[in-house]
Amino acid sequence: MPTFREILRTGVPQLGLCVMYPSPGVVERIGPDWDWIWIDGQHGQLGYSDVMQLVRACDLIKRPAFVRVPGHEAGTIGLTLDTGAAGVIVPCVDTPEQARAIVAAAKFPPIGNRSYGGRRPIDLLGRAYSHSANDDTILLLQIESPLAITHADEIAGIPGVDGLFLGPDDILLRRGAKMDAPRSKEMLTPDMSAVMSACRKHDKFGVMVGFGAEMLTHCVQMGYHLIVSGGDVPFLATTSKKTADEARAVIKSAKTEPAVGADQGRNSGPY
């Protein structure tokens, strides 16, 4: 069976589901609809135990788990990889110096300086898990600022960096866009092009958020390998509101019938 890295090398875009709530049951129920799972430990409502249980749920449904860590701290990156996650996503990487420090935290020697001894990897794979861990785990760095865009080529060229993930909200925010204002694919195209150009040049994976047919098509046409196209939050919010609105419309349009027995015994009773 091919590894996920090998699947990515085929060039077929892999669709991702973002998970922000601590519910392994959600992953079990709808995770199989997707190719990979993005567990958001940066902005999601997740602690370490939640991340561990979500990774286990991903293993159960045979989908690779990519955990976004809160920051660049080496201990957090190593501990997250020790959950057995398929990879980590590290946010707000602006410079090659930051990228090299993250590689050191995420990869074992000779590429990096990751600490050995993860309890779950040893329990599942044995003490030799470190032999292939650098290839087995995928390190994705988020490009989320104009400064990061200027360094995208350098960052992508660093050994141990497996891919670049353009963060659409943060890059737009840092370019002056309002988060509640309408947006179009044209607003992101220059930054998307810069990231994918760096990925193609250095044979790295490109990652992007592509909700909706228009944005998803744009991501595919630009050559992105991993595309986040669904999430527990929008599924809950959108479907809940749609269903509630439809139910209220039914109530409003339905004929109101008098309740059975409403007029019976009006003047009867002990009083």
Structure description:
There is one protein chain. This protein is α/β, with parallel strands linked by helices and about 270 residues long. The chain has a single domain, classed as TIM Barrel (Alpha-Beta Barrel), CATH 3.20.20.60. The chain contains 13 helices and 8 strands. Strands 1-2-3-4-5-6-7-8 form an 8-stranded parallel barrel, surrounded by 6 helices. Strand 3, helix 4 and strand 4 form a beta-alpha-beta unit. Helix 2 packs parallel to helix 3, helix 4 crosses helix 5 and helix 11 runs parallel beside helix 12. It is globular and about 80 Å long. About 40% of the residues are buried.
Strand content: 5-15%
Rg over CA atoms: 23 Å
Largest sheet: spatial strand order: 1-2-3-4-5-6-7-8
The helix tally amounts to: 13
Overall number of strands = 8
Which CATH class?
Alpha Beta
CATH topology: TIM Barrel
Task: Outline the secondary-structure elements.
Blueprint: H1 4-9, E1 14-19, H2 24-30, E2 36-40, H3 48-60, E3 65-68, H4 74-81, E4 87-90, H5 96-106, H6 119-125, H7 133-136, E5 138-143, H8 146-150, H9 152-156, E6 163-166, H10 168-174, H11 185-202, E7 205-209, H12 212-222, E8 226-231, H13 232-253
Parallel strand pairs: 1-2, 1-8, 2-3, 3-4, 4-5, 5-6, 6-7, 7-8
Helix pairs in contact: 2-3, 4-5, 11-12
